[in-house]
Predict the 3D structure of the following.
Amino acid sequence: MRQLVERMAAIPNLHGPVRLEIQQDANLAANIDTDWQQTLRRELEKRRLNITEEAGAPLLRIGLAETPTQVVLAASIHVADRDEVRLVSVPRVTLRAADLPVVPMRIERQLVYESADRILDASSLSSAAGGEIALLAYRSGELIVLRLNTSGEVTHTFELPVESAHASRDPRGELNVQANEAEILLPGKSCKFTWAAASEAKCHSAKTVWRGAAILAPPCDAGEWKLLAEGGDWTTVDMLQIVPAGAARNGSAPLLSDFPGPILNINGQDSSSSALVVTRNVRTGNYEVYKIMLACGN
């Protein structure tokens, strides 16, 4: 607000007093209080631009509006036969969460891998790996881990000697990668290995605690969003739901995205900006892995 008033005070031949008219976006009015208007008046008075109700005084219009990524302050006034306009924009991420109106967002998704092998889970590697991902799959009664480059091409295949997974009628597993070490969670068992010695995976009995819902933090919203899916019926398509995490905010509607089959696993553990979704396409029978992101704007 001070920046805006400073730019107004620098307008040639502008002197007080002025009449003040404030215009505010309806959505912002419902979500942001009027404290900023009092700040505006104080800053104007500091620069001898006093407020008056006299009809002959120049009319100063102040507007407050929003874009998907910014809050914009605008000032306009007619001085010496010219219309003068000054603008100041503020990134939304710098504002307190309680002050933010609901941000328009959309789901963006990218198919990164498709295979006839039964894919159980997908995990992003560390940022140092340049965006590579790893897949946990089930092939001919054996567990395997595939490492993919950023183009979705398999660069390494690791066979894991996990006896309890052999010939399982309903295999289930989760893959979690931390730096150079990876962990596989199976029913009642945990197995750890390194990329350099995947064939020497060390397994031990453990109470399996499956991961909770994936959480995303989009760049234009101070809140967090939770990814949910039913995934119970293997014969029908599924719906990915992205809903506000924690206390619901006014106007925050779920984001929905159709998938070509049941959603089997969602992993957003290694990134706050994206998640990996595993699904089985009911039309082709293939397993597919998608990268999911939240983007700003409708």
User: Anything to note?
Assistant: Helices lie at 2-9, 26-31, 35-46. Confidence is low (pLDDT under 50) at residues 247-251. The longest strand covers residues 105-115.
